[in-house]
Amino acid sequence: MNPLLQRLHPYPFERLRELTRDIAPSAAHRPISLGIGEPRHPTPPLVEQALVAALAGLSSYPATAGEPALREAVAGWLQRRYTVSVDPHTQVLPVNGSREALFALAQTVVDASRPGATVVCPNPFYQIYEGAALLAGAQTAFANSDPARNFAVRWDDIDDATWARTQLLYVCSPGNPTGAVMPQAEWARLFELSDRHGFVIASDECYSEIYFGDEPPLGSLQAAAALGRSDFRRLIAFTSLSKRSNVPGMRSGFVAGDASLIKQFLLYRTYHGSAMSTVVQRASIAAWNDEAHVVANRSLYRQKFDRVTPMLADVLDVRLPDAGFYLWAGVPGGDDVAYALGLLAQYNVAVLPGSLLARPARGLNPGAGRIRLALVAGTEECVEAAERIVQFTKEYRPS
Asked: In this model, does residue 26 exceed pLDDT 90?
């Protein structure tokens, strides 16, 4: 067996299942899960119709590079959304959801033969980043988020010697689980570090279309273009239809950016066997070319957050995030695991303890004392869950 597999940590939901194995949730309440970030709004009919209309495509092998029409649809969306121009033939590549691409890029980029090969991640973080780094033969370094600065990542946590060994940097904006959006100045700093040390930036932007203000979140390609980096050197952006269009089962997204990196990534993917089904490609074209369903989807999330956030703010340390569909809430007493287990046992509401989403770094676990709540269910179900959380918190006596 590959010895690197032994370096992997259990996935957060596996750890949570183990923690809750002996808990019998209250039978007085129907179960409500706010734990898993799986979109549950209806799939847009136009996507379903495009899937059905394309079923004849099942009879042929798809190309790894994807159909020109899909790459052009992506390029068109990037132009409309971020006012950036990309070459659909050299700077765009379809992927089977951002998760597999985030993992695969590390296998393409990391040179484990170089001493101290390092991948830098925000902390807390999407666990795929760490797994990708470890299986690529690299070590990981973590930069903690700062609650005092709206959960901005403290990139100063990484010293110069570590940056010098860094080959890949994962960033997530809007962030999972914090919902924080990186501003232009932060991007400028990361680009300067990338230029100085030669590492690749992988920008995970799968939550970019769920936001609560008037201005959409800044994207990495947009930030690069504003700084005159129209070649997007050493930058790859990852975007998915799962959250934007409520199609997590389609596993459809794209990467865009540095043409030289895209070329090598395509080479890797050709051997990896990760071509997107023609059927999914046609449905993806329909999704990227339509914005009305995205506006409607965003409105649903805004309604939920408008109702739920004030309720929870009365009993938890929580506020409306910049974007995304998570609330990142501080719990009384600071023991996020005990709080989550008590909530499940007494009120049958599942949430994810924040400490499971982070690693101890610089003497602390930045997820400790917080829980992640995914407001993915219907509005009334989310409100009912919030009512139970409020009641539980008022009764809760930390040990």
From this structure: no
Helix axes 45-53, 278-288, angle to 10 degrees: 150
Q: Which residue in the block uniquely carries the two structure tokens 């501003």?
A: 183
Task: Point out the least confidently predicted range of 26-30, 206-210, 307-311.
Answer: 26-30
Fold held by 46-289: Aspartate Aminotransferase; domain 2 (3.40.640)
Q: Do domains 3-42+293-395 and 46-289 have the same CATH topology?
A: no
The answer to whether the beta carbons of residues 278 and 58 sit under 8 Å apart is: yes
Buried b (16+ CB within 10 A) or exposed e, 226-239: beebeebbbbbbbb
Sign of torsion, CA 84 85 89 91?
negative
Residue 296: count of CB within 10 angstroms of its CB: 12
The yes-or-no verdict on residue 399 having pLDDT over 90 is no
The structural domains of the chain, with segments of one domain joined by +, span: 3-42+293-395, 46-289
- With tokens 């989403």, the residue in question is 357
Alpha-carbon span 42 to 40, nearest angstrom: 6
CA–CA separation, 316 and 134 (whole Å):
35
Q: Quick one: 3-42+293-395 is in which CATH superfamily?
A: Aspartate Aminotransferase, domain 1 (3.90.1150.10)
Cis amide linkage into residue 115, ω under 30° from 0: no
**Average pLDDT score, the chain:** 97
* 219 Cβ contact partners less than 8 Å away, ≥ 6 residues apart: 81, 82, 84, 203, 205, 208, 237
Distance CA 86, CA 74 (A): 9
Q: Are 1 and 127 in contact (CB under 8 A)?
A: no
Query: What pLDDT digit, counting tens, does each position of 182-212 carry?
Result: 999 999 999 999 999 999 999 999 999 999 9
Angle at 73 between CA 71 and CA 79, to 5 degrees: 105
Q: Under DSSP, is residue 301 helix (H, G, I), strand (E, B) or coil?
A: helix
Residue 275 near residue 266 (C-beta atoms within 8 A):
no
Alpha carbon distance 155, 189 (integer Å): 9
With bands split at pLDDT 50, 70 and 90, how would you rate the model's confidence at 122?
Answer: very high
Helix-then-strand count for the chain, H and E: 14, 13
Q: Considering the entire predicted model, what is its pTM?
A: 0.97
Count of CB atoms within 10 A of residue 54's CB?
A: 18
Q: Are 5 and 135 in contact (CB under 8 A)?
A: yes
